[in-house]
Amino acid sequence: MDKYLEMIRIRFLMMLAYRTNYYTGILIYSINIGAYYFLWSAIYGEKDAIEGMSVIQMSTYVAVAWMARAFYFNNIDREMAAEIKEGKVAVELIRPYNYLGMKTMQGLGEGVFRLFFFSVPGMVIVSFIFPLQFSADLTTWLFFAVSILLSFFINTQINLLTGITTFFLFNNTGLIRAKRVVIDLFSGLLIPISFFPNWAQDILKYLPFQGISYVPSMIFTNSFSNNEAIQAIILQGVWVIILVIPIQILWVIAKKQLIIQGG
Amino acid sequence: MFYIRIFFQYVAQYMKTRMQYRADLFVEIFSDLLFQAVNLIFILVVFGHTNLLGGWTRDEIIFIYGFFLVPYALFSSFFNIWDFNERYIVKGELDRILTRPIHSLFQIVLERMELESLFGAVTGIAVMFYAGNSLGLKLSWADPFLFLLFVLGGMLVYGGIFIMIACISFWADARTSIMPMMYNIGNYGRYPVDIYNSVIRFVLTWVLPFAFVGVYPAAFFLGKEEWFLYSFLTPVIGIVFFGISILIWNSGVKRYRGAGN
Amino acid sequence: MKDAITVRNLKKEFKAYSSRSGLKGAFRDLLTRNYKIVPAVNDISFNVKQGEMVGYIGENGAGKSTTIKMLTGILTPTSGGVIVNGMNPHRDREKFVSTIGVVFGQRSQLWWDIAVQESFRLLKKVYKVSDEQYESHMAHVIKTLDIEPLLDKPVRKLSLGQRMRCELAAALIHNPPLLFLDEPTIGLDVLVKLRIREFLKEINKKYNTTILLTTHDLTDIEALCERVVMLDDGKVIYDGALKSLKEKWGEGKEIEFQFLEEVELADLNKITASSEVKWEKDEKKAIFTAVVEDDDELISLLIAKVVAALKIKDINIKETSTEEIIRNIYDRGIS
Ligand SMILES: Nc1ncnc2c1ncn2[C@@H]1O[C@H](COP(=O)(O)OP(=O)(O)OP(=O)(O)O)[C@@H](O)[C@H]1O
Ligand SMILES: [Mg+2]
């Protein structure tokens, strides 16, 4: 366990070294949030509520969705692709740890860093500029905390899956990019899932993506009742468990391939 | 003249290498298409809940998006220098560039071009025709020429901004993530700027003039006369921003410190 | 003859950032960072004449590459003047670089993904070389460097020695009158090294090409350069003929004796008491070394004395190698 904690710490220090990222990053995320805020204000126009969400809930949704993205988002799929192509993975495999676990911990180190240096101050700044609504209810915060941790795991697992495909595809930068685009849309970052037409919602229900952004954001904005929140979190947890299966299968096949081809 | 010849030399070279990896090419074009589709889906879903967006109809918004795709495609084909800092500064590839008798920025443009992105222009024009058709827009003889002029202006705006951001690497030695995020901001030129508050509108018009890549020039073809002045400013802003970016680049290269071995 | 390179009081300073240690240090770095100004090249001056081959040597980090980068227009000097081929390298960069060729041994100048000959063809256009010029000149270069069979391979698939020969050919496409080579023989085997040296000598003779060369392999310098410029800590500490460097700092000659009988150092000292000589003994091999001034008279006198007194198994007269001289200078500095 020690070595995994150490990995989190090292990532944390590495992120600190790239300090200019955070001065500019917060500013630019704020602009991003701002633009969506205005877009949604224009969409709402005179309406009080769409799909049961008020304008204020909507702007809070946008803000928290983006700031949570700073936490769960990472590039470990691209890093894996690079490491696999450069043949470094073979070296990683003989080290005394689980490669995928290590990658996850690196992502977590990065995420924790961004949570404290990016998301939290960013959220404070954004709340001065735009009218947001924070819940006074402790259970909401508790649910939210559990939920974004789970969204981190779902997103990271999907990244691991995409990263492993590098073993089988000659070049997967296109795939990685496509995955990112799909996640931004289907996770509910750009539009809450409840805004989609019903048939689309029915399909999305059976996909893991809404666990990444939609669920924690809906919890944060109090758009879910307690019951709905608990159900959604359980569903997130189920997805975390389900996703372990394809990762392990692909990983075993990939390792076999690595041995045969010599990386 | 020399530069044009060199340009085609590089294009020929590029084609040769790309054709070796045709599968990559398709995946790349496909993921571009996917990205464009996601943005269209966003517009469609949003208009499932409202009829007007700050006074603009669905088809008008789609038309603006279609227009935006064309200068954006040109931009991403030739000014794809988002990894300038890592590749040229940190790894010191600029050393090589600087020992060759062609303007350094031009060489980088040549080396980094990604012609497959031009495919986006086709999508863009198709989207414009679809939207223009449902809006009943008419094409006059001058339109194609103005379209070309505005598209080039928009490309220069985009190119100018990204070159300026790349130039930061000459002064600051830390890696910055401005570049990828700027792609996000660039997207706001796609929506009518009158839905934003006046500060953002000002920024998108004069500071980071992304509005000149989408809504302003597109407004001309949509016949929105109150925006015509801005539409015709497009090439001017493009030339001004691009010109400034070249000046900054030239003085930045003087400060290049090389990569320690 | 006109000077190919003129360097006056050239200086280049770098800001070196240092990061504080530990988590707390990293947080402080977030706000302010420590840096100090390091002079990499500190007030150097020298000239190189057209047609000269000059070896530019010095320890790691002495500032050799930095100088070359300023001479080739890659870096701007902090202060001082550089005139190369009659131009200011940085200001007139685009015009200037067509008159020079550059090879950085540590870094490829060729395009990684494309075949070598495609690179050549592109460079030919870039340097505006006519077909006739190219044919007559490059055919020869390709033959001498023996890279014909490599031409259709992409650069990334070449071995180091193969790549380096191609790099050299690429730097010569426009047949420049001045060639900068920064560690061109790093990591190469003896045969490739020899071939490259022969080739450089040849173009120097044929086209009167000026060559400035940095290397850590002093045999390169001995084979190619009459003149060396030695750099230490950003300062020129020696500039002159390689020969006089040897004469000045070569510590005389060493004569090694092995004897058939048991001999003590004291005996030898007694025998040669009248000469200026220092005796050393290698206990294990029973080799006695006499260190004397490099003077033929003195040496033969000494040998005569020893031979007259003792039975000899083997004698060996050794000159101090350039390597040793340079090592001594690096160790002790010039005093
Ligand atoms: N881009 C840079 N930024 C900061 N310091 C640098 C940079 N380039 C070089 N230096 C420093 O300048 C000094 C001289 O470096 P230079 O590369 O010129 O040495 P060198 O003589 O070529 O050494 P070597 O034999 O190892 O190649 C070194 O102390 C180095 O750390
Ligand atoms: Mg060096």
TrEMBL record, chain A:
Signal peptide segment: none
Transmembrane segments: 21-40, 52-72, 112-134, 140-169, 181-200, 229-254
Pfam families, per the entry: ABC2_membrane_6 (PF06182)
Keywords: Membrane, Transmembrane, Transmembrane helix
Name this protein carries in UniProt: ABC-2 type transport system permease protein
Species, as recorded: Cytobacillus oceanisediminis
TrEMBL record, chain B:
Family matches, as Pfam families: ABC2_membrane_6
Membrane-spanning ranges: 25-49, 61-82, 115-133, 145-172, 199-221, 227-249
InterPro entries: ABC-2_transporter-like
Coiled-coil positions: none
Signal peptide: none
Origin superkingdom: Bacteria
Keyword annotations from UniProtKB, A to Z: Membrane, Transmembrane, Transmembrane helix
Protein known as: ABC-2 type transport system permease protein
UniProtKB/TrEMBL annotation, chain C:
Domain ABC transporter: 25-258
Pfam families: ABC_tran
Protein name listed in UniProt: ABC-2 type transport system ATP-binding protein
Key words of the record: ATP-binding, Nucleotide-binding, Transport
InterPro entries given in the database record: AAA+_ATPase, ABC_transporter-like_ATP-bd, ABC_transporter_ATP-binding, P-loop_NTPase
Molecular function terms from GO: ATP binding; ATP hydrolysis activity
